[in-house]
Amino acid sequence: MMKRLCLPLFVLAVTAAPARCEPGAKPGAALKEDPAATKLLADARAARAEWVNFPGFKADVTVNLDGRVSKGSVTVSDKGDVAVKLDGDEEAAKWAKGQLSSVVGHRLSDGPGGTPTPCAFPADDAHHPLGRTVQVLNDEFHSSYRIRDRQVIVVNRTGREARFTITVLENRLDDDKKFLPVSYVVNYWDAKTDALKSSDAFHQTWTRVGKFDLPDAVDLVRATPGKLEARSIRLSNHHLLTK
After folding, report:
1. What pLDDT is recorded for position 201?
2. Which of 73, 125, 192, 204 has its CA at 20 to 30 Å from residue 39's CA atom?
3. pTM, whole model, 2 decimals?
């Protein structure tokens, strides 16, 4: 089964564009699958914390948009559908739903096994501080990763209008010795001019409920030309749903 593709908010509508390689990488046309590269990505994916037999959950939620605070509730179904109800703030509810949908989508399990994603090593950079580059072959978003210590540290994807890079600053091990994201940065560039459009710094915390690590808090600081924004989501009183 193919792994679920989860993209940051505002990139979901990006259409495919010609591949871009990092400096020193081989041209995409010359790349052939390397079983070692395929295994490196598969092992990193297997090391991530996932929700297996997830029943869904409900929690109270507080959303803060640059000091504008709204309270309400969030319900996540066993399929990962997110519903956010706030006290009259539609903008805050829409933003929180998008962020939590991304968080949930990255944790849902696709089930055991599946077909590995064919990959190659586009460059000889095994000692890079962010990890070795792995290029996904035949991918519409021309995805590449940097992998270090069984962790996906960098994600690169490209579209016609924009490209982005996710750089993980910190993961932590949960009770099952699987990795959960704590701190990461998402940078967006204009695909034509390479101008930096925005930089989003995220911090996440988690709470253990039963055998599941559920989102506890999401903090975002966004920098755009001439502007800095801060937003947050706080969840409390988590309750797993019963099937």
Report:
1. 98
2. 204
3. 0.85
